[in-house]
Every structure is written in C-alpha cells, then in structure tokens.
Amino acid sequence: MTLENDLIQAGRTWVKNYGNPAGAIGDAQVKNASLTFQRPQLDYVVVSCIIVDRALSALGDEHLHGVSGVAPTLIVGGKREAVLRFQAFGATSVEWLSNLKLSLSRPGVMSALDALGVSFVPETPVTNIDMSLGAVREQRAFFDVVANYRIRTSTLSTAQGIVAATSVDLSVDFTETSGGAPVLELDTTITL
Q1: How confident is the model at residue 169 (pLDDT cuts 50, 70, 90)?
Q2: pTM value?
Q3: Could you tell me which residues come within 8 angstroms of residue 164 by beta carbon, excluding any fewer than 6 positions away?
Q4: Among the ranges given (46-50, 58-62, 115-119, 139-143), the one the predictor scored with the smallest mean pLDDT
Q5: DSSP secondary structure string, 114-183?
C-alpha cells in the first residue's frame, strides 16, 4: 500500500462508519478515487487525495521504539499533513457529508481516527455542487479535510546496526579548581 492509499482507506473507514446517521454505509458505496471503478448506483462517496505528504516543518523528530526486542520500530515524525476530498453523489450527498463534518466534534470519533493513525480537520464547508445531466439534475456535494499523521517506517532489523541499550548513567558535577573558576566534570556510563 502507498501512503496515499493508506490515507484514502482511513477516509473510507470514517465515511462508512460515520457518514450516514441512519447506520453504516456499505463498502461498495465508498470508492477510492485512485482506483478504477464503475460508477455505482446512487448514493455513494468518492474519497481522493489532493495533497499527499506535505511536511509542515523541516525539522522532524525520530523515536526508536522497542529497542529491547529483536526488531525495533523507528517512528519518523515532524508534523505532516495531506488534504483529502470527499465528494458525494445522490440525494443524501449533503446530509452524509454534513454528518461527517459534525462527527469530528465527538470524542469517540476522534479516538477512532486516532486508532487509524490520523486526525481530520475540516478545511472547507460542505458545498452543494448539483449538476445537470440532460433533463435530470443530480445532487452532489463535496468538502475537504486536512489529515494530520505521522509516518511509521517498517520495522528495523538488528542487522542495520541497531543495538539495544539496557542502561545509560550520566553524572554531572561542578568542582572548583585552585583558581576559583568552576570546572564541569561529566561522567557517562553506557551499558549495552
């Protein structure tokens, strides 16, 4: 899976679980715009990435987790974001997208998104974009969210030079010399 598809999948899960106030939306009704699909019967939602992997700071942070195990995981951070677009088609288009937007104020929804590794912040209002298709007028709507996330790399192996540190001791002392100027004494012990 690519990062774009992972983000779209998180968006699809959100739509399926929280888009319809009457219950879950079926998997066939929530499409990934980056994959080829035949247009389904109304009503449905298409999720697409407009911007992928935008770093918000040049300085990221890195955390090594699980160093006492055989395969530690490196989490590379810095704040990153993408912009996802949700476009709905059919009579429920405005209702589904409005419900999605309102769901972001519920703590349970925020926790569920956090478990998927993302947070969503609305970037645009739900916009009705009805379209004439000959003699028929099709109801459509869209809105965009900013998806904040962290990139989690694959598990690192010990063959890459990762060594598990079992203890690190650090002692810092200020001592005075005969001239009265303090001297910093630093004693470091690393046990592997």
Answers
A1: low
A2: 0.68
A3: 67, 68, 69, 72, 192
A4: 58-62
A5: HHTTEEEEE-S--EE--EEETTEEE-EEEEEEEEEEEEEEEEPPGGGT-----EEEEEEEEEE-TTS-EE
